[in-house]
């Protein structure tokens, strides 16, 4: 029994096209799948891939048919897209999003909401360094967390349905408040990306002296950072700005800790250095026990 | 035709046992392989694994038979081990090491050197998060760089032989000065490790509030950092202290860049943020073209 009649995915990129692939593969996420993108080229590619029953640039006609609209656009575009989508939706339909930040996305979408539309904010914590409709994977969400931040306007039925959808994608679910979500994601995801981008920049600025060697001799440490840093620039710019408060707090804490580590190295404080390294190992071990590593 | 008669590997850990496995697999690195470790337990494990012809805690008897002694101990132990090893070596033998830093290792070993022993400092840039004799892999060095920092006391023949040994391990070779080596490694390897350890500590210190969620929801960004951070604490403590000058310089540059990124986010400077992210992608692309990613 499909969760929804018609599911409309707005923005069939990495996340959106993964949901579509999963829905095609299982058949019980929705009876009918429509992909919407502002680019005719992306729509054509979705048609070629055969991952939706229909792919169109006509957003209002598409969402008018939807029992559920899933917004998979960059977080900075959520507000504008919701302003177009929500007025065209049919009464009783469910709106959901997959944004990596929740407080600012909810703030951006809220002015467009209607009393007869249930909104369920969600964040599937999965991804790769690739983007676009070709990057999706039917099993992208398998064993990954999907965080849900239900609001007053989230009905029990809509929450149940969106939970079912993500469960059928293979995700593990957890509910929390939007602000708690943003703090957790700042430390586990946004700050690591900020640091990865920054160290690539620092390396790039050594250009004159050692740039070619940096490229030649990237040992495993640096290689892992560049994998993180290969992600989509616009998406990450939006995420950084959308989660500014929590991210800058975590960056501040990190900078204090990095300064302390620098001082310990300067002063040969071996006990401090080892205790910090041990903390990293302990966290790693917990992650492995938690099937997250 | 084997490069050496008897090769003695002091410290059959990840790197040392990988060299032994390669030597066993090919047969043309040395005619006879001896592993030396201060731990009888490690020696017993090397015997069980069958990756050396002999495994012993008797370091002076072992190195007296060596045509080449390869020091694979933590960089902080190189000086003390060399002081024991070099006086026991036979005239004309070759001494080499695999330390991740070169200036301080060379300084530590130099007082023990003899005119009739050729010393070839080397650094195979390969590794995993695992350590000990069980962690080694015969193909660990395949397509990885091995950096050589020859000195005045490095004879042409000894350099040729050590180059042959690493070529037969599958490594790509490059020669440079010790200080240049240390600067390059500070940015491509040591600083990334320092940042990875630090962010794990920062996350750990959130304990009271959000620690369990951090563990639960480690998205891909944080997961990659913890993989780096899972490395051996003593080894990394030694590397940080051994490459203090170059590492603190690179940390200083990085901190300036991270502060600038924080300011850009604070001030919604989207152009700056995107330009930094683009740099990361450009470096990633170069690495992929260079077969390092």
Automatic annotation (TrEMBL), chains A, B:
It catalyses: prephenate + NAD(+) = 3-(4-hydroxyphenyl)pyruvate + CO2 + NADH. Residues 5-293 form the Prephenate/arogenate dehydrogenase domain. Keywords: Amino-acid biosynthesis, Aromatic amino acid biosynthesis, NAD, Oxidoreductase, Tyrosine biosynthesis. The keyword Amino-acid biosynthesis applies. The lineage of its organism: Bacteria, Pseudomonadati, Pseudomonadota, Alphaproteobacteria, Acetobacterales. It comes from Acetobacter garciniae. InterPro entries: 6-PGluconate_DH-like_C_sf, NAD(P)-bd_dom_sf, PDH_C, PDH_N, Preph/Arog_dehydrog, Prephen_DH. Its EC number is 1.3.1.12. One of its GO terms (molecular function) is NAD+ binding. PROSITE patterns: PDH_ADH (PS51176). GO terms for biological process: tyrosine biosynthetic process. It is an enzyme of class 1 (oxidoreductase). Belongs to the prephenate/arogenate dehydrogenase family. Pfam families: PDH_C (PF20463), PDH_N (PF02153). This is prephenate dehydrogenase. Pathway: Amino-acid biosynthesis; L-tyrosine biosynthesis; (4-hydroxyphenyl)pyruvate from prephenate (NAD(+) route): step 1/1.
